[in-house]
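Quick question, first post here. What does this chain look like in 3D?
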Amino acid sequence: MKALLICVLLTWSILSGALGKGYDPLAIAPKFQAQSRDLTVHDAARNRDIPVRLYLPANEKAEPVVLFSHGLGGSRAGSKFLGEHWAARGYLAVFVQHPGSDEAVWKAAAPGQRLAAMREAASLENFLLRVKDVTAVLDQLEAWNKSGPLAGRMDLTKIGMSGHSFGAITTEAVSGETFPASGRTLADSRIRAAVIFSPSIPTSMSPERAFGDVRIPWLLMTGTLDTAPIGHADVKSRLAVYPALHGAPKYEVVLDKAEHSAFTDRALPGDQAPRNPNHHRVILALSSAFWDAYLRGDKDALAWLNGAGPRTVLEAADDWKASP
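> Answer (accepted):
Ran it through. Tokens below.
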């Protein structure tokens, strides 16, 4: 009996260490109600207004900040399941809306012209506008953190960047991607880590040249059915990003039977596979653990992420890779 007890205790000790000492990235305060605030960032240099939605954590002390960039035709209101959970975990989440490639593109078009309008909006011009939007928002956050109702609520030494689809392309650009024409990056040095939903590779250069010099941790999320009606990306190209990363910790999850819309609030027109509720559970758990590990420096979160933790939320057919 004594030997059995020792064995049980030893097993629990090993397991709890591998999982991060009871760490749970899905745990939130039971009475937490996510509060959001809609604001507008005015970029005077471009005379451009950028709508943002802030999801606020419960306390008013300085907390890490996470930005989110929506996909083509989206808005600051999209993917709120992410903003609400990240805020519940103590992050100030800033959801950016990009004029020119947001919901106004398809809402202003006749039903039969919406796909064409969306394709036209997926342009180099709008990509560059999006990149500058991120910089403008970060500049405004610095100003808001000095005075006004948001003063002192942001720890701007701990900034994460995320995005889906066109927002993933935006996130890659501001988080360390190299571009062929100049061999330079559009990265903003204030960003410390990135979560990329439905990543893409460039068409004009190899993934290794584009992503080989990334120097901050990246978490990539895609699915076995992650294709979109606009753009060149297919599942094979999405999976080419992870092996091209060499300079920092990297992670990748491939959700079984997850379509492009798995990373959004609802199904998209043309979806064929039924939505799996566990996909959102995985997305929230892995992204929260990643932010905790690389923005907060939480050792238990890092142990969970690098150990057996992810398999406690993933299903058997989901694929997980980690290279800390």
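Residues 1-17 have pLDDT under 50 and may be disordered.
The domain at 35-323 is CATH 3.40.50.1820 (Rossmann fold).
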